[in-house]
Predict the structure.
Amino acid sequence: MKRYAVAVALVLVSLVACGDDGVRTVQPYDRAPVPFVPDRTAPIDSSSVQADGSLAASLDDGDYWAEATAVGSGRPFIMFDLAQAVFAQTCIDELGAEACADEYAVIGEPHGTMTVLWDDLQSVTVVAESRQNYAVPGAELASLIGGNQPSADAPADYHYVPYPFLITVRDGAIVDAHQIWVP
């Protein structure tokens, strides 16, 4: 038994020593998995919406439905308009089949805007019309939202479509932005 434990330990040490640091770096336009879509996104608390329509930093942690609305021209930011969405049977149960013809519906009020600096995004994916998801850096997302062509790293058949996003908010800041294909 002791010999087996020593052999396993040696194999593990060898694997760690032979590998890189165990961290895989994602390259622009690497294929990405389809983001998990819950039955509902987090609701917007009307008390979080400020007079100018922006959301307070006290917004609850969670995943929100969002539309990309602007990018900074002199400052590296992306602005999103956050709302709540419901999907599949939850949508039908709460809003009726007619409101959920595409298997989802956006609850438009309350809603509000939040901005994020490009470099503060930890995980970003975009989705092609073919429904293939790709990882991109925040700067590339901002460029696409701003109307620019994809970088040279993009697949030849990829072009940006302004599909909505699932945005993750943590500690009052947007940390992830994952674009969702919708019909």
Observations:
- DSSP finds three helices and eight strands in the chain.
- The longest strand covers residues 104-117.
- The first helix runs from residue 2 to 18.
- Residues 1-19 have pLDDT under 50 and may be disordered.
